[in-house]
Amino acid sequence: MNATIISNDEKHYPVLLDEILSIISPQNGGTFIDCTFGQGGYSKAILNDPKTKVYALDRDNNTKKYANDLLEKNKDRFFFYNSKFSDLDKINFNKEKIKTIIFDLGFSYNQVKDLKRGLSFFSDGPLDMRMGLNTFSALEVVNNLDQKDLVSIFKTFGEERDSKRIVKNIIIERKKEIIDTKKLVKIINFSKKKNNKKTHNSTKVFQALRIFVNKEISELIKALINSVKILEKNGILILVSFHSLEDKIIKTFFKLLSENKKISRYMPDNKGKTNILKLEKKKPILPSTKEIKINNPSRSAKLRYAIKINEAKDFEKEVYEKFNHLINIENLSDKLWGIILFQ
Question: 1.10.150.170, 3.40.50.10260, 1.10.10.10, 2.130.10.10: which CATH number matches 135-213+327-341?
Answer without folding.
Answer: 1.10.150.170
